[in-house]
Amino acid sequence: MEIKTISNGFSVSPQIVADDVKEIAKRGFRSIVCNRPDGEGADQPTFEEISNAAKEAGLEVRYQPIVSGKVSDDDARDFGRLYDELPKPVFAYCRTGTRSTTLWSLSQAAHLDTSEILRATKAAGYDMGGVVRRIVNGGKTPTDQGDAKYDIVIIGGGAAGISVASSLIARRSGLEIAVIDPADIHYYQPGWTMVGGGVFEASTTAQTMGSLIPKGVHWIKAAVAAFEPQDDAVILDGCRVVKYDRLIVCPGLKLDWNRVEGLVETLGRNGVTSNYRYDLAPYTWELVSSMREGKAIFTQPPMPIKCAGAPQKAMYLSADHWHRTGVLKNIDIDFCNAGGVLFGVKDYVPALESYVKKYDAHLDFFHNLVAIDGQAKKAWFDVAKPDTEVERVEKSFDMIHVCPPQVAPDFIRVSPLADAAGWVDVDQATLRHKSFTNIWSLGDVMNAPNAKTAAAARKQAPVVAENVVADIDGKSPVAQYDGYGSCPLTVERGRIVLAEFGYGGTLLPSFPKWLIDGTKPSHLAWLLKEKILPPIYWKAMLRGKEWLAKPEKVTGA
């Protein structure tokens, strides 16, 4: 925890965890303000976790969530009133401390000289120059001229963003490319299932962002606030403006933990866990490895979600451990799926059903988790079977693995780039935006009807790179995406059902059937997942080496 003093009565820091609260109280702070919305990052604790710790420490605590870069005049006034009311000194945090510092700066503008505010914030490591410009421009950020200009701007430094940057460089050296992402750490999220199953250590799924940005690519370590596509401009946190000739949008999606009532209050304790968060996946294994009897529930929300098979992967690996340790007969397993089928591509269902039978798991279809009470060990589901009224049912548990509802990030959903459901609106073949011809999108954030997996991004990156380079050369799109996605379903430790498919559920196997038959459990597929895919991800995919990812050409191109 790095506390930065702005004034005698106010300090800020980047994201904290619940264990930091005692130290905050020890240092004499009397109030905590959270300015970061829940669900911004995969490794981010929820406000409720911080709030509970603050109340235990005798601190006042307030929640004023601000979307990155979206500090309005009203937000500043509200913060000023809140700041005046709270006992001093006040400690505020967001992802980096920038939003909290911005709110303070704007709220104090009527009381302090601008130069005094700028000196105080600069001394703490925060540049408020962008806020000054916004104020003198009447609250409207000018987009006619930018602070920086690049040939290609990429939003997001995840699997999709780093891969497409590397694929572009491999095709056309000399391009001025910028990747915009505020995160310090890049995660290999497909590995979190294996962490929750006791196969991988969590630390092996994380590397620093700086070590992965391709050489020659500019890294703008900031959050995106808004898009001005008519002016070829991206507005960053702090109101800086970045201009582009071409834009690639791939920031991933948002885990909407708050959509399940009571969930954020109990995550990481009371037997409530999720492999969808870096800091919680080890807790999954802690629960699984210590469980000897009782009720275990695994949930799956409505689509779309990252890797449609991930919720049941957690169930299979857990059940396999209980089977191997001889306690499975004492554990009652429920798989509660908001959908109506076990898996969306029917060819893989028979193999999966055989494991459901092996583990004596009970399948509850059309069961959507809506509320949870961790201390009482109870969960509530809305059951919405076809042609019947919705019924709410209660289930008790000793352990529950939750897959959270998932949506596009806030700054995408409110942007001109989004469709009615909030996803970036693209042509499903070329991945070019339907309305803005110099914008492309890939990864989890776009609206093509494919599975949202890292394997999909691996195939999409070369397609986007080919088509962007073709556009630079004045040509029509030359590559098309067939909807490929892969979901290695870890049905037991040592065997995987390797689901590979494209648009419409068409099977798209990467290997001959005699080597890996994806419709059947395979030890070779397990070795691929455990030993081969992680180094391919770090050393090939993210470096523009397109193993088994050659783009399909547009007919006639």
Automatic annotation (TrEMBL):
| Residue span, Beta-lactamase hydrolase-like protein phosphatase-like domain | 3-110
Q: Which UniProt keywords apply?
A: FAD, Flavoprotein, Oxidoreductase, Quinone, Transit peptide
Signal peptide positions on this chain:
none
GO terms classed as biological process = sulfide oxidation, using sulfide:quinone oxidoreductase
Q: Which residues form the FAD/NAD(P)-binding domain?
A: 150-262
According to the lineage, what is the superkingdom? Bacteria
Entry-linked InterPro entries:
BLH_phosphatase-like, FAD/NAD-bd_sf, FAD/NAD-binding_dom, Prot-tyrosine_phosphatase-like, Sulphide_quinone_reductase
Q: Which GO terms describe its molecular function?
A: FAD binding; hydrolase activity; quinone binding; sulfide:quinone oxidoreductase activity
Q: Which NCBIfam families match?
A: TIGR01244 family sulfur transferase
Query: Know the name of this protein?
Result: NAD(FAD)-dependent dehydrogenase
